[in-house]
Amino acid sequence: MSIGQYSYEEYLSVVRSFHGYTAPGLAAGGFMVDLALSRMPDGVLFEAVCETRNCLPDAVQLLTPCTVGNGRLKIINLGRFALSLYDKHSGEGVRVYVDAQKVRAWPEVEAWLFKLKPKREQDCQLLLEQIRQAGPELYGIETVLVQPQLLGKRRRGAIGCCNLCGEPYPIDDGAICRACAGKTPYLVPGAEHFERPFDGPALDAAPLRDTVGKTALHDMTMIVPGKSKGAAFVNRVMKKGSLLEETPENC
Ligand SMILES: [Zn+2]
Ligand SMILES: [Zn+2]
User: Fold this and answer.
1) I want to staple 176 with a disulfide (CB 3.0 to 4.6 A). Which of 93, 166, 180, 239 is the partner?
2) Which pLDDT does position 237 carry in this prediction?
3) How far is the CA of 136 from the centre of ligand 2 (A)?
4) Cα dihedral sign for 181, 186, 190, 192?
């Protein structure tokens, strides 16, 4: 019984070094990926979906060119121990899942999958052996057509620097990055992160009409649509002139 280019034992040792231990889910996952691969036509550029976060994504990453990092493996957590490989362009592919009926014939696999006994009572060796003996028999396979929004090129928008943390982020996310918008996984002691001491000069906001002769904080560009685009002030010194007259009072 082999998995990809490996014998079962070789595969388990690769699993151990990549995943940390010989997880039964990865042993099963190896057969599942192998089964899916065997049904993909040669030369097709394919991508993968895993329907669980547990173990299975690592089997896909070990045995196919699809990884989370290269964008060819998506994890859509549906809680089912299943995966699909599909043609990146047409979306046609195969889905491999655990066949609950077939699992019943393998008591240690059944006990593991349905959590019928506490982990410490599991016979790990027997479990891995039953997964090996059963081979591809524990799984069902079906053809699938993947939803069109998962296909094709992923567009990447412009990148800017977050107004709060200063790190590069996709500006489609808004004026600040998602972390600063509250999605950070880290505990922020107090509000320290958001009140970074500002070591520049003390600044005041002033109405535009009161700024003549003063120096602006940053360069400004004046755009007259279809006519011109350029620096609005020389050396940032605010001058009475074109801009003031053309700008509404409350600016
Ligand atoms: Zn269901
Ligand atoms: Zn930020």
Assistant:
1) 180
2) 75
3) 47
4) negative
What local confidence, expressed as pLDDT, does residue 248 receive?
45
Whether residue 141 contacts residue 131, with contact meaning beta carbons closer than 8 Å, is answered with no
d(CA 162, ligand 2 centre) in Å? 5
Domain residue limits, the chain: 2-150, 155-198, 205-251
Q: What is the pLDDT of residue 152?
A: 76
Give pLDDT < 70 ranges for the chain.
188-207, 209, 233-235, 240-251
Which ligand gives the minimal distance to the CA of 82?
A: 1
Strands 46-50 and 73-75: parallel
Q: Which ligand ends up closest to the CA of 78?
A: 1
For residue 247, the model assigns a pLDDT of: 46
The CATH class, in words, for 155-198 is alpha beta
Ligand number nearest CA of 100 is: 1
Cα–Cα distance for residue pair 64/86, rounded to 1 Å? 12
Q: How far is the CA of 156 from the centre of ligand 2 (A)?
A: 18
Q: Choose which CATH entry (2.60.120.290, 3.40.30.10, 3.30.1330.130, 4.10.480.10) describes domain 2-150.
A: 3.30.1330.130
